[in-house]
Amino acid sequence: MRPISSLPDALASWNEIESLADGRKPAVFLDYDGTLTPIVERPEDAHLPPEMREALERVSAVCPVAVVSGRDVSFIVEEVGLDDLLYLGSHGFDIVTPQDMKLSTGREDEFARFLGSLDEVQAAVEEAVAKIDGAHVERKKYAVAVHYRQVVEADVPAVARIVDEQITKHPNLRKSGGKKVFELRPDIDWDKGWAVRWTLGALGLPTGETMPVYIGDDLTDEDAFTELAKDGLTIVVGSDSRETAAAYRVPVVNDVRDVLLHLAEMAEGVEA
Q1: Fewer CB in 10 Å around end: N or C, the chain?
Q2: Which of 9, 31, 45, 189 is an active site residue?
Q3: For 114-172, what is each residue's pLDDT tens digit?
Q4: CATH number of domain containing 122
């Protein structure tokens, strides 16, 4: 783990990255918020910029591309709107594939057993945070997110206590964090790292021929960075001092577009 600010810039290090690829074709996995779109005050305002959609369209024409988000998969599908991508919502619990592709984790029944607890948590948290200005509860299919970006600093501990109380009452759930958000989700071995590795296997993409690429900005992306540390390319979006398992960084979201275009060129070169 190293501070994000100490990592080499991915775009400035592209010759090194091409050597790392060693002729392997990229398979690209991307977070959504803070990676494909800038972080916004209200989650519902995170719309995909047209130029980022164009870059996604180009790279997805030459290699596999998946969006891996804590968001509900329906939101990601609607916002990105490209038919050739895979969409892994709720940290990979919920999957939407292109029409000609059928993928299943085989664990859907296991995931569904948590829905009752999540319903109870949603109701309890919504009632409890109603008195805290700026707090916002977002129900996802397999998670309950409690956003506190607009909560004054003095009230953040109260939000955390509300979430912790629900974890005590529902030990089958666990708390995870992100940028100004607490999340309660199933306490099982499944996260973005597991989801990415499972997808590579399900698509039949051996790492000897494929270079997995993961780009993300948040704490939940660290699971994927760790999973791909030995055989992939990992890029974190940001420039602060937070510790990360990623190998490279780009400072801002706009740079992700340039990385995607470079990856498209790399994939085209492999196919040539």
Answers
A1: C
A2: 31
A3: 999 999 999 999 999 999 999 999 988 888 999 999 999 999 999 999 999 999 999 99
A4: 3.30.70.1020
